[in-house]
């Protein structure tokens, strides 16, 4: 395997940014160089002779790795890791968390040199400060020397030290008031309020817009109070070449994108890596040894490779030594000591450095019985006071690795449920690893390593929830068959990866959550009916957490353990010996979920993990129910940190119920803290999450640069995992089956357009996406319920009644640049004279408010489905004025990444897209041809007289500007101020 560079020298040259990898931590000799050309961000290898002179002060800086290249149109920025922190060791191999990154512009040598100089100066200043006062033990000045077994290893997550409710404290510890704790430190809404009263509040909000710690902040050179600048800080004015391509929206949002990128990869402390150990695979997967010939980026599990897209230029260039995979999630490690023969007397105090206690563990009641231990030998202590272990004692490391999937990545309420491929939101694999602590820093390959894996994920159903409520009702989407097909894909993939499955559903059996819980259970029953073998069936356990644990009695989770204990033991765990030899393999996995898969899930998963830890230690001769330390604070704190980390990544706050996970106790203070977190989550869902979701989708390669135009227009983006092309084609097919009643009609085509929600007009308050069907006899305008996959209503127009088709500029809003582009905002208006064969029908099954008696007129064959005609259609045919059908073309190019669209025109599978005006002209011409065929008065006349099409503005830009109200402009400005 090509050796990953431990350090990389980043410097600027005349002809491109130069990266000089240092091949290993022991051998610091330079390896091959890589050049990033200015302007286009392309990467190519160069010889060592091309290395620039780095003797000038601040002409270069050293990075611990490369995250990738962020490219918006032709603005490219190199992301380098400038600070890291060791958080664990697995088999003697260190694992790091990224704590700071630098963004270096690649647009020109001047911009790159200035950014590199600032980064180098900041790193030098920090090094000098540390030499004078070594306060920050987390700074990685010598990361390889850190001992994973040391309790001083810093936490991997960004926990706030002032949050006393989230950590066990002594009675003498200083406590902040609840109001201060919730509003000033915990709540984004508190920071939002500060912006109106304090200039400093703007800086605080900028650095905390994802629920991050105030200590891990970006300090802009023009905004910091002390004039200092952190390494890699994004300047207030980001250099953007005037001649650079790209939309105004991309230019305007680029600074926000870069700041979000720097916070996401750097100061959020949620991205982990290892030079030697594949942290993306659990031990049961039989990982490939790190010494294999394949590069690490080819060995890792791609669904946990978060910087794959922005690292692709280096991979394509063959720069494998720079391709450092990052995983988002959590890595934490704690050490603890157990005694094979612990004393069983309560001595009323501490003994041998451990607290003595007769209190049994919360889980002891569910553990197998044990025999009394014989008196242990006396503890031996060195003269320096350092404790040594008795022969009956052993020190272990417990490590948690949680891996967040990239396949449906995002934030709460913006990424819910499942997609068409069976990927669910907030999918996390959590692995608990038990290993013997290294002796003198050396790992003994003969020691057993234990692994227990469990997973979490959103409901594998199509549903949404509004972000504007504390407890929103889940709204089901799409048909039952579509939901079952996606759910089946999901569980087929889980069975293939993990074996047997046990679902733990923690939502309420009554109330707003029950609806989706019932649908979940019904789909699992249907899935099990189709199962060919017994082991293929998915076990389903519905545990109403809120009902059973009502009154803050979270210890009642032990009831769930009593139920699932035998299943847990049957699944077992993985045991690895001799480094990579799997002795036993875990046979199944628990899939736990609540509504968000955060708070209730954290409590239960920690309980399952403790149950299995006790089994693993018992396998080595240690009975946890007999230990003097029954508090297990090392275990509770580690799992609470894990829960906080996952919660921050999905809901932008720490986990609720964290006080119980840490202390196994629940009181009013924890309940009040949870109330503050609920308000924080509500605020983030309403204001902060929209652009951050856009950033995540862009960095993962799910969307293209056009996403910024969409965001500027709507202040939010669509779910890129949803194939709108497939949805629209399915809607066209469904509409054809439902509304074209006469089998004699020949179907000529179907399309989707935007149309005013108010019929017979070209301008209304909003537009909706409709389906237009064309047969040889009629036009059908179908209004479609995209959530339920049903036809809401349709309007049939006989082609013999079409009088005119007008196409041209159709601008309905002027609040963004994309909406005033006259070449992209086009449409057509079809005028027709109503006749007896023209009808409008509404699906009464989808409208519970309909009270009129269905009428029998109109086409037959769909009476049971579409049953209400437009009143007086026949009578109005001779007296009513012409009616209009206004249709606006959808944009031919969207932000969703389309692999086929990236192919060359001559390559197989290449997609040739018509422009918006081409679409309108082609469809209008087809309608005209068939309309003339159905009108004898026009048949046989000359071409000019038979023409129905005319070109002209439907709504011109000038008219649209005139009709745009001040209130509409003000509303969009406020939305842009808040969200962008």
TrEMBL record:
Residues 722-886 form the HSac2 domain. One of its GO terms (cellular component) is endoplasmic reticulum. Residues 267-652 form the SAC domain. One of its GO terms (biological process) is phosphatidylinositol dephosphorylation. Residues 165-177, 353-372, 845-854 have a biased composition (Polar residues). It comes from the Eukaryota. Residues 131-142, 151-163 have a biased composition (Acidic residues). PROSITE patterns: HSAC2 (PS51791), SAC (PS50275). Residues 126-179, 337-395, 845-864 are annotated as: Disordered. GO terms for molecular function: phosphatidylinositol-4-phosphate phosphatase activity. This is Phosphatidylinositide phosphatase SAC2. It comes from Echria macrotheca.
């Amino acid at each position: 395997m090509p050796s990953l560079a431990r350090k990389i020298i980043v410097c600027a040259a005349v002809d491109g940014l130069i990266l000089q990898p240092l091949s290993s931590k022991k051998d610091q000799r330079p390896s091959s160089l890589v050049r990033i050309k200015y302007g286009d961000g392309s990467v190519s290898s160069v010889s060592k002779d091309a290395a620039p002179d780095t003797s000038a002060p601040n002409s270069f800086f050293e990075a611990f790795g490369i995250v990738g290249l962020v490219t918006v149109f032709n603005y490219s920025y190199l992301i380098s890791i400038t600070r890291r922190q060791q958080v664990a060791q697995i088999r003697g191999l260190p694992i790091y968390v990224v704590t700071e990154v630098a963004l270096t512009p690649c647009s020109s040598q001047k911009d790159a040199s200035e950014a590199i100089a600032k980064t180098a100066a900041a790193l030098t200043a920090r090094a000098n400060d540390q030499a004078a006062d070594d306060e920050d033990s987390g700074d990685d000045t010598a990361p390889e020397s850190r001992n994973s077994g040391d309790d001083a290893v810093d936490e991997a997550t960004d926990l706030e030290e002032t949050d006393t409710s989230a950590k066990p404290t002594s009675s003498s510890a200083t406590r902040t008031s609840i109001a201060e704790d919730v509003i000033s430190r915990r709540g984004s809404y508190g920071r939002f309020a500060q912006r109106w009263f304090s200039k400093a509040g703007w800086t605080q909000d900028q650095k905390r817009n994802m629920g991050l710690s105030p200590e891990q902040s970006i300090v802009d050179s023009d905004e910091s109070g002390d004039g200092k600048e952190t390494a890699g800080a994004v300047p207030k004015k980001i250099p953007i070449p005037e001649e650079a391509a790209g939309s105004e929206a991309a230019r305007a949002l680029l600074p926000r994108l870069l700041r979000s990128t720097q916070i996401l990869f750097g100061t959020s402390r949620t991205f982990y890596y290892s030079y030697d150990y594949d942290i993306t695979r659990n031990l049961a997967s039989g990982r490939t040894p790190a010494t294999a010939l394949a590069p690490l980026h080819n060995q890792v599990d791609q669904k946990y490779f978060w910087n794959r897209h922005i690292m692709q230029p280096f991979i394509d260039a063959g720069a494998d030594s720079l391709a450092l995979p990052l995983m988002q999630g959590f890595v934490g490690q704690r050490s603890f000591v157990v005694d094979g023969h612990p004393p069983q007397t309560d001595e009323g105090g501490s003994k041998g450095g451990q607290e003595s206690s007769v209190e049994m563990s919360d889980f002891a009641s569910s553990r197998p019985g044990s025999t009394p231990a014989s008196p242990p030998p006396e503890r031996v202590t060195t003269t320096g006071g350092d404790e040594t272990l008795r022969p009956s004692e052993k020190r272990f490391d417990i490590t948690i690795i949680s891996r967040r999937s990239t396949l449906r990545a995002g934030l709460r309420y913006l990424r819910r449920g499942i997609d068409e491929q069976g990927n669910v939101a907030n999918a996390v694999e959590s692995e608990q690893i038990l290993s013997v602590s290294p002796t003198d820093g050396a790992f003994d390959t003969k020691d057993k390593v234990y692994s227990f894996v469990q997973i979490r994920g959103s409901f594998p159903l199509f549903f949404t929830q509004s972000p504007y409520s504390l407890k929103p009702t889940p709204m089901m989407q799409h048909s039952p068959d579509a939901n079952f097909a996606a759910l089946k894909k999901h569980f087929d993939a889980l069975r293939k990866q993990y074996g047997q499955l046990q679902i733990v559903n923690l939502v309420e059996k009554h109330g707003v959550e029950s609806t989706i819980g019932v649908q979940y259970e019904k789909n699992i029953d249907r899935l099990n009916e189709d199962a060919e073998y017994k082991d293929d069936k998915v076990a389903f356990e519905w545990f109403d957490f809120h009902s059973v644990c009502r009154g803050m009695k979270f210890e009642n989770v032990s009831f769930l353990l009593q139920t699932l204990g035998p299943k847990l033991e049957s699944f077992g765990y993985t045991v690895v010996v001799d480094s990579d030899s799997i002795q036993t393999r875990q046979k199944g996995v628990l899939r736990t979920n609540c509504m968000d898969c955060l708070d209730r899930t954290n409590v239960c998963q920690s309980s399952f993990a403790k149950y299995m830890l006790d089994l693993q230690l018992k396998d080595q001769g240690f009975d946890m129910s007999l230990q003097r330390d029954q508090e297990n604070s090392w275990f509770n704190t580690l799992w609470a940190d894990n829960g906080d980390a996952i919660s921050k990544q999905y809901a932008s706050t720490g986990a609720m119920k964290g006080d119980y996970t840490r202390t196994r106790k629940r009181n009013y203070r924890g309940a009040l803290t949870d109330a503050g977190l609920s308000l924080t989550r509500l605020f983030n869902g309403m204001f902060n999450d929209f652009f951050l979701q856009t950033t995540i989708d862009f960095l993962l390669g799910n969307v293209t640069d056009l996403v910024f135009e969409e965001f500027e227009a709507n202040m939010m983006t669509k779910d890129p995992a949803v194939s709108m092309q497939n949805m629209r084609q399915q809607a066209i097919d469904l509409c054809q089956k439902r509304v074209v009643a006469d089998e004699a009609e020949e179907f000529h085509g179907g399309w989707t357009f935007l149309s005013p929600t108010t019929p017979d007009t070209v301008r209304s308050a909003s537009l909706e996406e409709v389906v237009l069907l064309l047969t040889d006899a009629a036009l059908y305008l179908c209004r479609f319920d995209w959530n339920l996959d049903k036809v809401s209503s349709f309007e049939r127009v006989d082609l013999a009644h079409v009088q005119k088709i007008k196409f041209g500029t159709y601008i309905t809003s002027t609040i963004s640049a994309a909406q005033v582009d006259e070449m992209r905002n086009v449409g057509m208006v079809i005028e027709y004279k109503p006749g007896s064969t023209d009808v409008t029908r509404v699906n009464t099954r989808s409208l519970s408010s309909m009270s009129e008696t269905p009428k029998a007129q109109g086409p037959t064959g769909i009476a049971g489905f579409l049953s209400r005609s437009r009143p007086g259609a026949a009578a109005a045919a001779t007296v009513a004025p012409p009616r209009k059908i206004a249709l606006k073309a959808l944009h031919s190019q969207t932000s969703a990444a389309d692999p086929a669209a990236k192919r060359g025109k001559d390559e197989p599978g290449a997609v040739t897209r018509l422009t918006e005006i081409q679409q309108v002209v082609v469809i209008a011409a087809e309608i005209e041809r068939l309309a003339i065929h159905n009108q004898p008065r026009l048949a046989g006349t000359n071409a000019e007289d038979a023409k129905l099409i005319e070109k002209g503005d439907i709504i011109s830009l000038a008219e649209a500007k005139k009709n745009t109200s001040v209130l509409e402009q003000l509303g969009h400005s406020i939305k842009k101020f808040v969200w962008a």
